[in-house]
TrEMBL record:
Residues 4-57 form the Acetyl-coenzyme A synthetase N-terminal domain. Its EC number is 6.2.1.17. This is Propionyl-CoA synthetase. Residues 510-589 form the AMP-binding enzyme C-terminal domain. Belongs to the ATP-dependent AMP-binding enzyme family. One of its GO terms (cellular component) is intracellular organelle lumen. It is an enzyme of class 6 (ligase). It comes from Idiomarina aquatica. GO terms for molecular function: propionate-CoA ligase activity. Signal peptide: none annotated. Pfam families: ACAS_N, AMP-binding, AMP-binding_C. InterPro entries: ACAS_N (IPR032387), AMP-bd_C (IPR025110), AMP-bd_C_sf (IPR045851), AMP-binding_CS (IPR020845), AMP-dep_synth/lig_dom (IPR000873), ANL_N_sf (IPR042099). Residues 65-446 form the AMP-dependent synthetase/ligase domain. Keywords: Ligase.
């Protein structure tokens, strides 16, 4: 604990000195001499006079340091029966050539490139190739539907879109190209060029003039070197759900991000270069950006890119098999993945078939690690299990166990201690810091450390409105929780309309906007309710228009399908109730907490601000009738 407190204090007392020292561990083209410049909004630009390139750090610098023959990336794909390894030298060659491909299409510094790809090595190659030429990538998770892709295209205005012919979800082959075509039709600012990686499971039809074949282009490609970019140059935009239908484009820079990730690889994950890190997530999420692609490679580890699920590909022993086969040192996934394994294999019989001797630690994030899942995973694996808290916006952990400098005792339900650089405060509604043990809004005192979002793409005002306005001088995380007397942070859930379904961050506000657009719907509300496997599941209440002429069952399946079509199957909105009224305050605010209580059949304390106390019984009655009917 002493080492933790010393390092934390050092970063707090002299942030610029602390992070400049960390920055020296990387191969800059131009070493920074200034730690940070403060902006008017309280945020910082990190290493403003430094120049580097993250693709160079992840590849060229590793080869130059003697890691050319070390495995950089292991593509492990139980869904196709493939395992393919890339040494650092091989990955560098592929990335440099693909950078040549995109450069020959006119893509350069500052241009945006959308990457809509499944979990294949070409996704990582595409990201690193964009970084190499100074282009800004924006990876869109393959589970999102065409409409979501179109929204992101219109916001990023890309010069190029990269995709593959299909994704493979368990036993299903999902054609990507029709989704891309539909999105390009819907988008107002589509890119001029599309490059398609043809997988053997599906051949996409290419539109002449616009679409190009990845493999053919690579045959004639010339490798290109990494271009130096300013530390503050954007590396990527990653869209994340806010409270409305318009996702926020979280921007990440090259310099601050590289320094923060490099620091975290040992400090948080306790890893050494050469060790194997298995992050079972998707490159479409921030976890995939930071700890499948950039973090492990910048630090010289071997990273696993896993195209499969925790269960059913082929069974609940999937993770243990990967750990044995590739001698994994640390594994990281979402609690929902371990809950899925526990559900299928409660006694961990599959685990007994594998030798997981190489495994030292297990990490979870994306949602709160519930104590039951923590206990089970610890017990069956005999390994330390660490919860850690972060967001798309931070890009790397804000709270974690300081494993690299000496692990501290784990408290189940807590994501442990603030990471150096993050001064976490729990504030009441008036912005006053709360004493230990009291629950409030989890905030971070400004300026944020390196690695965190410098802005929202094309919308500085949204940065202020979403994160900086609520509590002046602080970044508001949108999460609620408390800090105990030992300084351990407990994140208890969101304070806004964002929900977390199987580790996927989704907006109930966006679902409401889509439902409300249905011609028969007058009003609606969507709330998150607890689910044993996925953490949370959305449930909707809808009110029909007076003149509506539709069978409620038909409406329900129409609405479920609309959400799948617009957002994607990952939204998992499967339950909807038609109700006569929504519970509201007299000023018209929907009482979502009360809706949640009604859905969970909890005792309802009717607030004095409610506009119509009699509506509760009528809503309860319709929910009961419809859920009985659906169980028949
Ligand atoms: N592309 C296309 N469709 C996708 C997809 C993708 N990348 N990912 C999920 N989907 C679809 C699924 O096929 C499913 O469709 P269906 O309703 O037609 O069957 C739907 O979205 C829901 O998928 P999912 O939430 O993954 O549920 P599941 O029941 O198939 O699997 C888990 C449950 C827990 C095994 C799975 O959610 C999981 O592995 N979660 C871990 C998530 C994670 O790693 N999050 C990253 C944060 S660290
Ligand atoms: P995302 O931006 O998709 O990574 O989602 C971030 C959100 O997930 C956070 O704001 C939290 O609500 C939740 N979250 C992530 N990690 C944790 C954790 N360890 N404990 C509790 N909530 C978490």
């Amino acid at each position: 604990m002493q080492a933790y407190h010393e390092i934390y204090a050092e970063a707090q007392q002299d942030p610029e000195g602390f992070w400049l020292e960390q920055a020296q561990r990387l191969a800059w083209f131009k070493q920074p001499t200034v730690g940070a410049t403060l902006k008017k909004n309280g945020m910082a630009d990190w290493f403003p006079d430094g120049e580097l390139n993250v693709s160079y750090l992840a590849l060229d610098a590793q080869v130059e340091a003697g890691r050319g023959e070390q495995t950089a990336l292991i593509y492990d794909s139980p869904v196709t029966g493939n395992v393919q390894t890339y040494s650092y030298r091989e990955l560098l060659d592929e990335v440099a050539k693909f950078a040549g491909v995109i450069q020959s299409m006119g893509v350069g510094k500052g241009d945006r490139v959308i990457i809509y790809m499944p979990m294949i090595p070409q996704a990582a190659i595409a990201m690193l190739a964009c970084a190499r030429v100074g282009a800004i990538h924006s990876v869109v998770f393959g589970g999102f539907a065409a409409h979501e892709l179109a929204i992101r295209i219109d916001d990023a205005e890309p010069a190029l879109l990269l995709t593959a012919s299909c994704g493979i979800e368990g036993k299903k082959t999902l054609a990507y190209k029709p989704i891309v075509d539909k999105a390009l039709k819907e988008a107002e600012k589509p890119p001029q060029n599309v490059i398609v990686f043809q997988r053997e499971q599906e051949t996409a039809t290419l539109q002449s003039g616009r679409d190009h074949d990845w493999q053919q282009l690579m045959q004639h490609a010339e490798p290109v070197a990494a271009v130096p970019v300013a530390s503050t140059h954007p590396l990527y935009i990653l869209y994340t759900s806010g409270t409305t239908g318009r996702p926020k484009g979280v921007v990440r820079d090259h310099g601050g991000y590289a320094v923060a990730l490099n620091f975290s690889m040992n400090y948080v994950y306790g890893l050494q270069p050469g060790e194997v890190f298995f992050t079972a997530s998707d490159v479409g999420w921030v976890v995939g950006h930071s700890y499948i692609v950039y973090g492990p490679l910048i630090f010289g580890c071997t990273s696993i890119l896993y195209e499969g699920k925790p269960v059913n590909t082929p069974d609940a022993g999937a993770f243990w098999r990967v750990i044995e086969q590739h001698k994994v040192t640390a594994v990281f996934s979402a609690p929902t993945a371990f809950r899925a394994i526990k559900k299928e294999d409660p006694k961990a019989d599959y685990l007994k078939r594998y030798d997981i001797g190489s495994l030292q630690r297990i990490y979870m994030a994306g949602e709160r690690l519930d104590p039951a899942t923590y206990e089970w995973t610890t017990e069956v694996t005999g390994r330390p299990v660490y919860d850690h808290w972060w967001q798309t916006e931070s890009g790397w952990p804000m709270c974690a166990n300081p494993v690299g400098v000496g692990a501290t005792p784990v408290k189940p339900g807590s994501s442990s201690l603030p990471v150096p650089g993050y001064e976490i405060a729990v504030l009441d509604t008036a912005g006053k810091p709360l004493p230990a043990g009291e629950e409030g809004s989890i905030c971070v005192r400004l300026p944020l450390p390196p690695g965190c979002l410098p802005t929202v793409w094309g919308d500085e005002q949204r940065l202020r409105d979403s994160y900086l306005k609520a509590f002046p001088g602080y970044y508001c995380s949108g999460d609620g929780g408390y800090i105990d007397k030992d300084g351990y942070v407990f994140i208890m859930g969101r304070t806004d309309d964002v929900i977390n379904v199987a580790g996927h961050r989704l907006s109930t506000g966006e679902m409401e906007e889509i439902l409300a657009a249905h011609p028969e719907v007058a009003e609606c509300a969507v709330v998150g309710t607890p689910d044993d496997l996925k953490g949370e599941l959305p449930i909707g209440l809808v009110i029909l228009k007076n003149e509506a002429d539709i069978d409620p069952g038909q409406l329900q399946s129409d609405l479920v399908q609309t959400i799948r079509d617009k957002i994607g199957a990952i939204a998992c909105l499967k339950t909807l109730y038609v109700v006569p009224k929504l519970p509201k305050t007299r000023s018209g605010k929907i009482l979502r907490r009360l809706i949640r209580q009604l859905l969970l059949r909890e005792d309802v304390a009717i607030p004095s601000t409610i506009d119509d106390p009699n509506s509760i019984a009528a809503i309860q009655q319709s929910i009961e009738q419809q859920s009985k009917a659906s169980h028949r």
